[in-house]
Amino acid sequence: MNNSYFENNNTYMEWKLDEKIYKTIVGALGSCNSSNNSVQVEVTKVLKDLNENVADAALYLLHIFMNKQENNDVRQVGGLLLKNYINSKNKFLSNDILKIIKNEIFKLVEDEVKEIRNTSGSVITTILTKYEGIEQWPEALYNLLLLIERGNNDVVDGAFRAILIIIEDELMNRKNRDSLFFQFCKSQLLQKLFQFCSPQEKNIKKKYAAECLDLFITSSCFTTNGVFNDMFAQLWECLGYLASEEDPQILKIVVSCMTIITDTRYSSIFSNLDAIIQFMVNATNSNDRKVQLEALEFWPIFIKDRSYVAYASYNNPKSDINKSDSNYIDENVYKNINELRTEALKRLKNYLPYLCKILIDNTVYTKWDYLTMDESHFQNDNANVPDLIQDISPELYNNKNNDIAQEEIKMNKMNNINNNNNNININSSNNNINNNNVINNNNNNNIGDINKNNINSSNNNINNNNVINNNNNNNNNDNNNNNILLNKNDDIMMTPNNNHNNNTEDFSDDDLDEKNDEMSSRTWGNDWTVRKGAALCLDYLSNVYNDEILEFVLPHIEEKLMSDKWNIRESAVLTLGAIAKGCMYSLSPFIPKVLEYLIKLLNDEKPLARSISCWCVTRFSSWICHPDNCEKWFEPVLLNLLKRILDSNKRVQEAACSSFANLEEDALELLNNYLHEIVHTIQQAFQIYQAKNYFILFDVVGTLIDSVNIVKENNELAHEVVYAILSKWVNIRISSPYIIALMECMSCITSAYGKEFLKYAKDVIRTCIKFLVILYIDLEEEVKYFYSKKLFNSISFISNRNNISSTANELLTYYKITNDDYFICMKDIDTISPSKKKDLIECSFDLLSRILSVINSSIMDILNESEYNFIPLVHKYCLKLQNIKFDDFNNKIMSNHEELRNIINPDGTLQNGYIMGDKNEYSELAKQFLDFGILQSNFALIGDISRFCPQYLITYLNDIIPFLIAHITHPSTPVSNNASWAIGEISIHINSEYMEIYVDEITKQLIYICQNSKYHGCLLQNICITFGRLTSTYPKKLIFYFPQFLKTWLKIMAHGTQENEKINSLKAVLETLYINLDLAAEHLKDIVYIILKYKYVSQNVNIFFHQFLATMKEKYPNHWKEIYSQTGDSLSSPIPNDMLSDLATRFNL
Q1: What pLDDT was estimated at residue 541?
Q2: In DSSP terms, which residues pair with 914 in a beta bridge?
Q3: I want to staple 621 with a disulfide (CB 3.0 to 4.6 A). Which of 530, 666, 875, 1054 is the partner?
Q4: What is the distance in angstroms between the CA of the first residue and the CA of the last residue of the chain?
Q5: Quick one: pLDDT band at residue 888, thresholds 50, 70, 90?
Q6: Cα separations in angstroms, 784 against 777, 915, 927
């Protein structure tokens, strides 16, 4: 094509097209859908030529888009190409051309063809949101609003769709309150939206206005501190108008908006409380399934207990609350929040007879429930049918948090050395492979989440002194909040997809895909349905109203149990299970008959009936295991559940395993008399289960090991369990769908055996090493490809799985892995997702760390054999370009040395075929190729290696220490925490000469964190502990930093609980202060306060404290008098009298 461009013209009418070019483009667009490869090649060639060589290509596309004589499909493709052309910021897209497009595009919003209207809206929003921004084209917003006012339904549809996209994009980018967009909303858009909600307006305008308002409400714009707070009264009035509409789409939006407003502006609903309750009751009983689903989300929000938020905020008025957060409540509400909730519950009780009946009626299976299930739910004998790989959910390592923004998901490795390392009691249902200390992020707003990798028990028994805990109990309904959470394995209570707070912007595409695919067809189907929502609401209501709800529920249960239809009887069982936890006391007289019925139902001919009875029977597990009842009921329930674990239906097997895992947690020592039956059932299950059910079977094993100390109770049976697991372990392939579940189970076994696990350690370590080797080789290929592409702007490096690279050859030889094994693994690794690869690395590190923490220094006997020495791999994963050999790719790199230096960093060099870089290389490479979880786990493992086999680490310290330093100020709290912890461990366990040259840099970064308020409180304390450890090893270096840091250090260390490591750090700091006692005198009040606070110390430490205080009293009498002053200053508060009295009683001072 030849360039064709208008000269001295700036209007579309004056532009002259080249007919030949135009016909060529139209012909290509008309052939886009051809299945002929040669035609597709020609189309691609034409479009590439158009983009690269035709200066006015955008105008040709615009002309095609506007030409009503062309086929509508061709027109739409032309519009989409125009949008992409603008989005790509093509070099030929001048201001003159863009001006023409902006002038003409609004005509297409009025086109009679819906697809053209939609595409024109996309072009407009692309210009506004991707190319120029609203500030450069503000008239577009006003033009769209004018089209909505004056246009017919088609025009309204096109213009509103464009506005919706603009609103969504602007809210996502979170413009400041003074932005042009928000000014437009306040002055123009919102008033129009409110107007369009009035009863006399067209239905299409109401629907779109409701959608727009929904976006603003969902984005917290109408909260008490939102940008549109002053317009809330008008919004509330509009929602009242819309609530009287019959259109299900509008009603769904109204229900959703009222739910959010109830959650964020609780006091605002009380002026219309009865009307709202009645509206929501009607919506719950709607004929439209989507309206019902939205309404079912309202009731847990409406009745939840907000006092925990109110109390914390009211008592900490200066606390740094995120005002836009959905849990933020107006300060005026804090004082009477409990009274408001009491009033709400009182009013709702009047509607319970109607609401409960509606909920109970909706627990019956519907076509929507059946549509979410696969055939396996209905087949009576399918235990021998292999699971298809596409039916198995991708595994997500349990230590990952779904909300990546927080990432506080796993372990705080700043553990207490003096703790007994064998007393690590991690609940197996939580399946955390992490070491002694855990950063816990239990999002209890995800009610009843039963996914196999997200199973949380009510008790997290972690032997830990330093826990970063991030519990988001957003749905606490009363003081018995744990009871409201449905049973951890209740597939029937699967968490709904709550769209009110979708924090997914930080997920990669792979993460999102896996998160969505994770909801596989489990025991009762994968989708959130009305049936599940109704059962969940009954559970909430029963936990709030307790026995008061029975009069509204029991008659319906009894009626349904007498039905001759199995699905009606089944719904009664579901209802009974839903209310069991909240009404246990008053149900007690009826429970024996209930259990008789359920045990009978466990042997029903229908698989779905057997499944629901498995779930329901263990909703009463606390009653069954009570001393007054266990003698009669525990054995029949247990034995029948064991029978169902070996059921002929795979989904019943799954339900039985889940229920048995719950029973285990309540039963504890009651299981001791039945260990033979349990273990033999598990062994048989391992023989007959298909891949999908291994996930839950591993959980059963883990829970059994945690609930019953089977190693001590019956070592022979324990070995049988371990043998069953090891038989899977030694033959596991890296592509196995249940590999992570198996590794988590192995972690539980490791903890249970303690030092006795040494006899199994080699087999476990060997498999972890094999995985880490293969995954590292794959990771190195990724690094090579990345730099090849970046350096040459092309795919110059192609990984050949049939060849063995020099790195691969080195590792395979060192670890004695055969070439055949290697090629099988590399073939397998190409079938798993990038995120699962990272999970496997993280999981392997965690399991190795767990082994180290239980067998301690005994690991050295194993590390003496090279094929079991995993420490070189730990070093490899501290990525450094210098350590990556680029093989034959090296010649190309040498010829482009200067370009490569600019890509890596200005100080980059090349030596002996290796790329060299400066210290920034450590963090940059990790940021590109390692996720936070890998770093966190690797640093934890480095710390444990330092504790138990430090001599094996010395060779690699010149790389490892700078790598740790580079991540001390990492944005992820767990990564930062574990990096500093590992540095502290190295400083006290390895000869001081290896770290001395790094001490100044480390100290500066530690001080930076402690003086920066954005960091987590527990991280600050652990950073201070590391500072104390460094002080004990390098006192003369660290004393230099005391003047600028000691005050902050003492303040931070005075907070929180007393722990041995904090005491040791304080002792080290005080010992160092003997170098400069004048400095100690300046901070004497803070020093005395922290010493007095640390009451529970050893005799030797107490003697040391006494000597230090006596020295200070003698040498600095004036400063000593000041500690008794009850008038605080700007730097220190007075020490309480009851603590000062300890100076006499405890120290005789």
Answers
A1: 94
A2: 885, 911
A3: 666
A4: 97
A5: low
A6: 11, 11, 16
Looking at the DSSP assignment, which residues form a beta bridge with residue 915? Answer: 910
pTM for the predicted model, two decimal places: 0.72
Residue 1035 has pLDDT above 90, yes or no: yes
DSSP 8-state class, residue 426: -
Give me 1142's structure tokens.
């300890």
The H or E element that residue 49 is part of is: helix 37-53
Contact 19, 60 (CB under 8 A): no
Q: For 1014-1029, b where at least 16 C-beta lie within 10 A, e where not — what string?
A: ebbebbbbbbbbbbbb
pLDDT value for 312: 40
**Distance, CA of 124 to CA of 95 (rounded, Å):** 15
Q: At what angle do helices 337-349 and 307-315 cross, to 10 degrees?
A: 170
Residue 1027 scores a pLDDT above 90: yes
Q: Spell out the residues 6+ positions from residue 1093 whose beta carbon is closer than 8 angstroms to its own.
A: 1054, 1058, 1139
Which of 116-130, 492-506, 549-563, 805-819 has the weakest average pLDDT?
A: 492-506
Domain identity same for 633 and 696: yes
pLDDT band at 367 (very low <50, low <70, confident <90, very high): confident
Note whether residue 617 is domain-resident.
yes
Q: Do residues 539 and 493 lie in contact, with contact meaning Cβ atoms separated by under 8 Å?
A: yes
567 with 603, same domain: the answer is no
User: Residue 33: how many CA atoms within 13 Å on its side-chain side?
Assistant: 5
Do 622 and 571 lie in one domain? The reply is no
Q: What is the largest CA-CA distance in the chain?
A: 104
Q: Per mean pLDDT, which range of 861-875, 1061-1075, 1135-1149 is the poorest?
A: 1135-1149
What mean pLDDT comes out for the span 148-158? 84
Which tens digits make up the pLDDT trace of 942-957?
999 999 999 999 999 9
**Same domain (yes/no): 157, 190:** no
Question: Contact, 500 vs 259, CB < 8 A?
Answer: yes
Place of tokens 């000062």: 1140
DSSP string, 656-678: HHHHHHHHHHHHGGGGGGGHHHH
- Asked if 735 and 828 count as a contact pair (C-beta separation under 8 A), the reply is yes
User: Can you tell me which residue has the tokens 């209740």?
Assistant: 490
Whether the Cβ atoms of residue 530 and residue 365 lie closer than 8 Å to each other: no
Q: List, for residues 159-192, the tens digit of each pLDDT value.
A: 888 888 888 888 887 667 778 888 888 889 999 9
Same domain, yes or no, for 614 and 538?
no
pLDDT tens-place string over residues 8-40 = 345 667 778 788 888 888 888 888 877 888 888
Q: Is the pLDDT of residue 436 over 60?
A: no
Q: Please report, as a single letter, which amino acid is at residue 411.
A: M
20: in domain:
yes
Tokens found for residue 1030: 């460094």
680 assigned to some structural domain:
yes
| Runs of H (alpha helix) within 793-882 | 806-814, 819-829, 834-855, 859-863, 871-876
Q: What is the tally of structural domains in the chain?
A: 5
Residues 1081 and 1042 in one domain: yes
**Residues of the chain with pLDDT > 70: what percent?**
78
Which residues constitute the domain of residue 340? 332-374+526-584
- d(C-alpha 63, C-alpha 65), whole Å: 5
Distance CA 194, CA 213 (A): 9
From the list 1058, 1114, 1054, the residue with the least C-alpha distance to 1085 is 1054
CA 1107 from chain centre, in angstroms, equals 50
Residues contacting 202, CB < 8 A, separation 6+: 153, 156
Supply the angle between the helices 530-545 and 337-349 in degrees, to the nearest 10. Answer: 110
Q: What does the pLDDT look like over 306-336, one tens digit per residue?
A: 765 544 443 333 333 333 333 333 444 444 7
Average pLDDT of every residue of the chain:
79
Contacts of 67-71 with CB under 8 Å at 24 or more apart are 68/111, 70/26, 71/30
Q: Are residues 163 and 278 in the same domain?
A: no
Does 1017 fall in a domain?
Answer: no
